[in-house]
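Bench log. Compound arrived from synthesis this morning; before running ITC I wanted a structural hypothesis for how flavin-adenine dinucleotide sits in the protein. Inputs:
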Amino acid sequence: MAAVHEVDISIVGAGPAGLYAAYYAGFRGLSIAIIDSLTEPGGQVTALYPEKLIFDVAGFPAVKGRELIERCVEQAAPYDPLYLLGQRADELTPHGDGSFTLTTSIGTVVHTKAVVITGGIGHFTPRPLPDAEDFEGNGLVYFVKALESMRDDDVLIVGGGDSAVDWALNLEDIARSITLIHRRDRFRAHEDSVNKMMDSSVEVLTFTEVHSISGDNGIELVEVFNNRTDERRILKVNKVIAALGFKSDLGPLKQWPIVIDGRHILVDTRMQTNVPGVFSAGDITEYDGKVRLISVGFGEAATAVNNAAVHINPEAKVFPGHSSG
Ligand SMILES: Cc1cc2nc3c(=O)[nH]c(=O)nc-3n(C[C@H](O)[C@H](O)[C@H](O)COP(=O)(O)OP(=O)(O)OC[C@H]3O[C@@H](n4cnc5c(N)ncnc54)[C@H](O)[C@@H]3O)c2cc1C
């Protein structure tokens, strides 16, 4: 039997904007469901750069991605949001009384009085390392959830972007050995980080790609080849991080009755879409002068939720009052 929930407000996307929307909805006394297709909250921050330091969030001179998300979750926790993780919000059905029904990819049904879409760059999945499915979760990962999970490992990193180079640098003092292979000789990462990596103990092999992975109980050997000379080499590693980038797609949101321009949802100054009661915040929104930053998403989430509170109860004020007690 599919689960059925009744809430005041549903938030689609548990990235930083969605988590802050959950806090604000709780502060406004609204009951909350927060849906994400990823199995952990944090959106791009958790999936792509949990160990990176972020320098431009107000009040935090420097904060690791992971810690920022932990704080956002903690901030919303007193209001007990219902997390529906590992499920995509697939269908949105508006009703004549201004309420909605949301249905997720596993059949969960949420009846809700307002919706805030904080879907970021959409539902995103890593670009797979070809012919390596057998080792997924068994030595092969697409992002590193915790650096400590690689302590004393022999790690092969595949990729030439920021994530690949950052993992290499961050793991240098944790892993036993690190080899990074990249199919070109030019990196897409910050020059400064590439220079640091070149000066580090990381072994960097350019024009190199994976030929095959083998091992009976997890990864034991990876055969790599030089794509210019076809020279082969066998690396003894037990972990592979494939940092080949992500594919993102708005997916089912494109079928919803909201106006989408390219990959973004058009909103007004209240962060409301063309559908009354459906609001949006964070990277997914578009308006003249839009800046895609975490700090901007936080502000938009507050605006969206406070206006959603008025949609739910027209007697309510947009201004929530001050939180300081
Ligand atoms: C490497 C890197 C470094 C960055 N550094 C900084 C920085 O230093 N400072 C800064 O301000 N910004 C930085 N950013 C950008 C920042 O991460 C984004 O602006 C921020 O994550 C946007 O937050 P969001 O909540 O709007 O969306 P996201 O973080 O993208 O979260 C959206 C969530 O919605 C979910 N979702 C989408 N569609 C659905 C659906 N139909 N059903 C269920 N779930 C759905 C997704 O799975 C995702 O979890 C960086 C980005 C990257 C990639």
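What the model suggests: Residues 12-18, 35-38, 43-45, 48-49, 54, 56, 88-89, 118-123, 162, 251-253, 282-283, 292-295, 297 surround flavin-adenine dinucleotide (CB under 6 Å). The mean pLDDT is 95.
ITC booked for Thursday regardless.
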